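Worked problem 6 (solution included).
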Amino acid sequence: MGAFHAGHLALFEAARTENDVVVVSLFVNPAQFGEGEDLDRYPRDEERDARLAEEAGVDILFAPSAQELYPNGYSTWVDVGELGQRLEGEFRPGHFRGVATVCLKLFNIVRPTRAYFGQKDAQQATVVKQLVNDLNLDLEIRVVPTVRDEDGLALSSRNAYLSAEQRESALALPRALATKDVARARELLGGLEVDYVEEANFNGQRVLAAAVRVGKTRLIDNVILEGELA
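Solution. The predicted structure is:
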């Protein structure tokens, strides 16, 4: 969704090493934002993103408008079932409907051989894998390890919202997950507003996942307990 950082660049690099042509989508998808979320203030800098993509060897930057993907009268949506209703889906109703729908549209437009997603959004990656499997799409989903700053915080475009003091508070999230223990993680997150801290099984990959709010900023992260990256 733009505001590219080193996590996105890791996806570009992985794609560059395995493919002849690399297409990167740049689209802040309104369908995956709920009421009262940060759609209007989500970080946007298309000129910078285009420069970073070019420097990373991206061949095509596909940056459609919302009107192009959701023209007047648009009414078709992808329901991903139970997988999209727990954890992130519980706290962001309709989120994965928007994710699955835009991914299917992008896949149909670009017709990629492989598509790359980050482990930080583990549930999202699993939703997309299930979408590909259930709808018999002819592509592979690759998952790239989470990229973190030196202090351990997972890179996210929303990190730009954090003040220095809030960022220090946010470091409780990676420290808690590093314990790989639900009870201990909950203890370490006691000073933050916590949406969830749970062990989850995403189609065979067990993770310890959490979502917290630091001020008005919502952050998610996870660590793998068992299973491999796709």
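Discussion: DSSP finds nine helices and seven strands in the chain.
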